[in-house]
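Recap quiz, item 2
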Amino acid sequence: MKLAALKKLRVVFSILYFLLILTLFIDFTDIIPEKIYDSVLFLQFVPSLLTLVNIFTITGIGFLIIIILNIFFGRVYCSFICPLGIMQDIFSYIAKKIRRLKRYRYAYIKPLHWIRYSFLGIFIIGLISGITVLISFLDPYSIFGRIVSGLIRPVVVEGNNLLASVFQKFDIYTFYVVDLQPQHWQVMIVSAFFLLLILLFSVFKGRLYCNTICPVGTLLGFFSRFSVFKININKNTCTSCKLCEKVCKAGCIDIPEQNVEFDRCINCFNCLTVCPFDSIQYSLDRKITKQESPAPSEQNPNNRRQFFALLALIFAAGKSWSQDIEVHDTATFPTKRKVAVSPPGSDSIEHFNSVCTACHLCVSACPTHVLQPAYTDYGLIGFMQPVMDNHAGFCNFDCVKCGEVCPTSAIQLLDLETKRQTQIGIAQFVKQNCIVETEGTNCGACAEHCPTKAVRMVPYHGSLVIPEVTDNICIGCGACEYACPTTPHKAIYVEGNAIHQRAQKPEEKEQEREVEDDFPF
Amino acid sequence: MKRRDFIIKSINAGIFTGAALSFGGYGKIFANTVNSSLPYDLVAVRDGEPDLMLDKALKAMGGIKNFVTKGQTVVVKPNIGWDVPPERAADTNPLLVKRIITHCFTAGAKEVYVFDNTCDKWSSCYKNSGIEKAAKDAGAKVVPANSESYFQNVDIPRGKNLKNAKVHELILSSDVFINVPILKNHGSARITVTMKNLMGIVWDRRYWHRNNLNQCIADFATYRKPDLNIVDAYQVMTKNGPRGTSTADLVKMKYLIVSDDMVAADAAAAKVFGIEPQDAEYIPMANQLGVGQIDLTKLNINRIRV
C-alpha cells in the first residue's frame, strides 16, 4: 500500500495548525475570540497533562488523545501538533532551499539514549515534585510560546507600528501603534538560546532535538514501540539504496540493518514518498519479536549524582532568592514587595508556580500588559513565569483574559463577578514618598484609578487630601501603583497575597439628593 | 531616542516630508482670541434629554455654523477615560457625542476626529463607553491616542509649573476643537469639567500630578482655548469619582452647559454640582491666568428650561 499522500496531509495540516497557533501568540489587537484558544491548544501535550493532574477537567484529556493516537499511529504529535516541531520542519525546509538541495541529505543517527532518558527523568521529577521550572525549560510548546512572544512578536509589532505611522501621515488610523513592554533580558536569553539551538539542530540534523533533548518526544517514543501502525521495511524488495534514510529527518532509518527505529520516528512520512520499489511502508506492525534497544537500566551513577546535585542547587536557589525583591532601584524611601503578585485565577502562588509552564500565551494576550515574565520575583522556582508587573500596567477590573487563554489551568477561569472580588494583593501606602506629603500639593492619581475606591482621598492639611487604603475592598489590581507618579519609588504599591483572598464588595449607598428647581447661577 | 522613533523620524524627514508638509497645520499656533460674534457667553439648558438639550443650546448660540464652517476639520474630545458602560456616566454620553458630530457634518465639516488618551486600556474604553460606535455611526474617525508617537511637544508660555507638554497631533492639525467633558466628582481636583478634560489630549499626565495638579490644569488651559465646550451634566457622578464604583454614585441632574470660555463653563458646572467655583482650586487659578471669567454675574448667560 502506498501512502505517499500522508506526507501531503501532514504538510498541509501542520502548516495550517502552525499558523493558527502562531496567530494566537502574536495577536496584539485582541481580535481573536477567547473561545478559540482552548480548542486550538487542548491537544498540547504538557499543558493538558498538567491540567488533568491539577484540576480534573475535560480540557485535560488532550494528552490522552495524543497517547491513544500514538498507540495507533506513532508520534503524530511531533509532526502534526507540536509547534516547535513544525517550526523545525520549516527551518529545515528553508535551509534546504537555501542550499539548493533537491532532497534532504540526512543519515542514520545512533540513538543517544542516556541523554534522552536523563531529560525525561528531569521532566518527570519536575512533574512529580511540582518544580515546574524544570518542565518549563523542556516543554516544546512552552519553548515555542516563549520564542514567539518574546522574540518574534516584538518584530511583528514594530512592523505594525512602522506601518501605522506611515498610514497616519495619510490620515488613515485603521492601524494603530502598539507600545511594547521590554522583557527581562535573562528571560529573552533563554528564549534566544533555544531558538538558536533548534535552528542549528534543524538546519544540520533534522529533528535531532526531538530525539535527544525533548522529553515529550522521548515519552511518546516509548509508546511508539507498541504502535499498531508502524513504518516497516520490506526486506525482500529493499535494495538498500538509502533514499529513505537520506530524507529521514529523525535519522531513525538504519539501512545497513534494514531497520526503522520507530520510537524515534516522528511520523513525517517523507520516506514513503521516495522509495522507488515501495519497500518502505506504513502498515500494521507484523513484527512480533521485539529486540529493541535495552531500557536505560545501566545509567551511569555518577551522572545521576550530578543530576541530583543540580536539582539541589535549583532548590536552594529557589529558597534563598524567592523573597525580598526590591521593586525600585534607587530611592528616597525604597519600597519592597515581599510577596510577588500572581494573576487572578491562579489561586495561590504555590499552585501557580507548580502548574505554569511559562508558555507566555497570557503575556501575549494580556490587554494591559500587566502580565510580564518574572525574573526572580517568585524565586528561581518561578523563573520566566508571568507575574503582575504594575510598572508595565495594571489588571483591568473587567477582564479575565489570562484565565481564558491559559492552557495548563495555572490560571483558572473566573467568572467576572468572582474576579472583581478576588484579592491578589493589597495596596500599601508609603506616605514618605507621596506627593501630598513631599510637595504639599494635591495629586490623587492612585485614588483616581482605583476601581473599588479601596484607595480614596481623605482630608489632610488645609485643602490637601491624601490617599487612604481600605484593605478589605482592595483587590490588588495595581492601578494605584501604576498611576502613582512619584520617582524613583512609588508611594503606593501592591503587596502580593501568597494565597488569594476574597475581598468585600464596595458599599453602594444610594444618594438622596434633590436637584434644585432654580438655576444655581 | 528609541530605535523606532529614529526610524519613524527618518521616514518623516525623507520620503514623507511632502505628505507631512501638505497638512500644513503642524505647529500652527492658535491665538487665544475671544469669539466675539457669539450671542451669549454661556448657555445652560436643563430638564431635557442630552441630544435635545444640545440642539437648544446650539440654536441659542447662533447655530453650529458659528463654530464650524464648510471644509474644516474638527476634533471632538469627549471623556473616554474609563472602561465602563454608558450607564455608569464615567465617560461622556455617547448619544451626545454622536449628535455633536452630526451637527459638525451638517455645517459642512470635511472630517471629524474623536479620541482620548484614556486611563484604562484604550480600546476597551473606546468600545465599552459606546463612544466608538456612536462616533463611527455619525461618520467620524475614531483615532487612537495610546502611544507617545501620536503626540508632539508644544510650549506653554503662560504656564507657571507646566512650561511644555506633548499634545495629540490632531489638536495641532485640526481647524476646530470641540471639548466635550462630563461633569464628575474628582478625588483631588474636586470636580472634573472642561479644563481637567484636557488632560486627555496630552501624553504625560504623571508630570502634572507631580507638579501641583491644580496649577498644571490651569497652566495647560492657557495653551489653547477650545472653540466650543459642551459639558455633559445629565447624569452626574457626585462621589467616588472620577471612575465611580456603581450607578449609586450618580445623580440625575439633566443639565447641559455650552460656552467657549472654559473658566465660565467650569464655574457654572461647579454651581450645578453644588460647590463654589473657588472650591476647585484650578478654576480661580485659571481665572488669574486670564483663561476666562470665573464671576458668573459678569457674563451674559442664557438659561433654558426644556
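The radius of gyration of chain A is 27 Å.
Chain A touches chain B through 53 residues (CB under 8 Å).
End of item.
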